[in-house]
Design a protein that fits this description.
Among the domains are: 1-105, no CATH class; 111-237, no CATH class. The chain contains 15 helices and 14 strands. It has helices spanning 27-30, 51-59, 65-74, 82-89, 122-133, 189-202, 243-247, 256-261, 270-280, 285-301, 318-321, 370-378, 388-414, 420-441, 451-454, and strands spanning 9-14, 17-25, 111-112, 117-119, 152-157, 164-167, 175-179, 210-215, 218-224, 228-231, 234-237, 240-242, 313-316, 334-336. Strand 8 and strand 9 form a beta hairpin. Mean pLDDT is 91; it is low at 319-331 and 453-462. Magnesium ion (MG) is lined by residues 148, 310-311, 341.
Length: 462
């Protein structure tokens, strides 16, 4: 872990198989003042952890789906072999951890921009992005691991020149490049995500910094990593974990319906878990819950059905952990990380639109009614009974965001974040959401999705 002089512990697996894996903290690490646990689900202790807890944390560091299969097969590793895969890809992981084979030189910590990176010229960058866009594995050149299913690449970027850099010897990356697939699936997703993140920001929510670029001929969303800190020439990793890791939920149960079917209780799935135990791990649970509920409203309004447990994270704020107020800190010194991976999935009719986390009792966006919004509101007060007036106030927050969502989409278009044509699918989805609210809550929010035409500069002209 960046900042720790020795290793944190030892992860064991059987060659070629994922069972059993165990993780044991190193006694020297445990004895270190201020040692932090890898995860809220793996508290510091000297006894080994067995497969269940270990898999949830470590498996959640790895890519998923097709990306996992291609990277594994290119290295002749069984995609189920999590220890083997981490050994190959784990030099630069989410957060402050690096996972390296025993005997390997430690990953660079921190990285020095002037010494531990190789500048990529335009052609090499375009070639690399082209490989990723085509769904081909990166082979031996890349030793980073980023979760998720979208095609992506992790690189560093020189803050002075904006040039992209390839890390050497496991030096930390600073940016994630989400690359639009070339095979036509999820067309326009880069513009879609750039717009949704921007609307989140305009609605007052904390979001990652993202920039849209065309590299070669390929659309790329370049996202600054919130789990990296760059000071002058030095790049450091910051400790973080996603909600699946913090709650000890394996990757394949990140969706609420799947978790419920597997017998996972409400304390570890859906909004009950996110607003309850997960937010409770932060130093400011009230603020975290407020942001999470506002994000739930915004995700529903923008048609993002895919806000599952791996799309929320806790970030260790070192500056604040060292402050005098940290004595009264709650949890391990974590705060809610900025929001990321906000996409209007509703713009892709082929994609399953089941809500990753139910709103009240509703699993589908168009089944959400007043009582469901109030159930979500009640989940902000875990273990407490609150008056109807307090819960009803959240309907006012929902209404504020609902009134703002189309004007903010138009403002993003006016500012050149996306073109009007690119915004249209998202705008249409948001319009349908507003009409649903008007119908079910008796509101009369303007939901005319062709409004932009009347204001000039509309669809036909761009
Ligand atoms: N800005 C960021 N800083 C640090 N980690 C990030 C950032 N954005 C995404 N991640 C990490 O990468 C993973 C995959 O990114 P995400 O945007 O969720 O892609 P996908 O669409 O494939 O799910 C996330 O689960 C998170 O761990
Ligand atoms: Mg994601």
């Amino acid at each position: 872990m960046d900042g720790a002089p020795g290793r944190v512990g030892i992860l064991l697996g059987q060659p070629g198989g994922s069972f059993p894996a165990s993780f044991t903290y190193d006694p020297e690490y445990l004895a270190r003042p201020g040692a932090v646990p890898l995860s809220a689900s793996l508290p510091l202790r000297s006894a080994p952890y067995d497969d269940a807890g270990v898999r949830a944390f470590f498996d959640n560091l790895l890519p998923e789906g097709e990306r996992r299969r291609t990277e594994a097969l290119a290295r002749r590793i069984d995609p189920a072999d999590l220890v083997g895969l981490l050994g190959a890809l784990g030099a630069d992981c989410p957060g402050a951890v690096s996972v390296l084979p025993e005997g390997a030189a430690p990953a660079k910590m921190p990285g020095r921009l002037g010494a531990d990176y190789e500048a990529l010229d335009e052609d090499r960058l375009a070639a690399l992005v082209g490989e990723v866009a085509a769904g081909r594995p990166l082979g031996g050149r890349a030793r980073f691991s980023v979760a998720g299913v979208q095609r992506k690449l992790a690189l560093a970027r020189d803050p002075a020149t904006g040039r992209f850099l390839l890390p050497r010897d496991g030096a930390p990356t600073t940016h994630i490049l989400k690359v639009e697939a070339q095979d036509g699936e999820h067309r326009g997703i880069v513009a879609n995500e750039a717009l949704c993140l921007d609307v989140f920001r305009r609605l007052g929510l904390p979001v990652v910094h993202a920039e849209r670029m065309v590299i070669g001929v390929i659309q790329v969303l370049v996202v600054a990593r919130y789990d990296r800190a760059v000071h002058d020439d030095l790049v450091a990793r910051l400790h973080q974990e996603d909600a699946a890791q913090a709650l000890g939920v394996p990757r394949e149960l990140k969706y609420e319906d799947d978790a419920e079917q597997a017998g996972v209780g409400p304390e570890r799935r859906g909004f009950a878990a996110l607003l309850g135990r997960f937010a409770g791990l932060t130093r400011g649970p009230g603020d975290a819950r407020l942001n999470l509920v506002h994000a739930a409203h915004a995700n529903w309004l923008l048609g993002n059905a895919d806000a599952h447990l791996k799309n929320f994270a806790l970030l260790h704020d070192e500056a604040r952990a060292d402050s005098p107020a940290a004595d009264q800190a709650i949890g391990f010194g974590f705060d809610l990380a900025p929001f990321y991976d906000v996409v209007c999935t509703g713009a892709y009719p082929g994609v399953d639109q089941t809500l990753a986390m139910r709103i009240g009792r509703a699993s589908q966006w168009d089944a959400v009614e007043r009582a469901d919004w109030l159930l979500l509101a009640a989940q902000m007060f875990p273990g407490r009974r609150v008056g109807a007036g307090v819960l009803a106030r959240q309907l006012d927050w929902l209404r504020d965001s609902a009134v703002a969502v189309l004007p903010e989409i138009d403002a993003a278009v006016a500012d050149g974040v996306v073109t009007a044509i690119e915004a249209k699918p998202v705008r249409d989805v948001a319009g349908a959401r507003l009409r649903h609210l008007n119908r079910t809550l008796g509101w009369s929010i303007p939901a005319d999705t062709d409004a932009l035409v009347h204001r000039g500069g509309g669809w036909a002209m761009s």
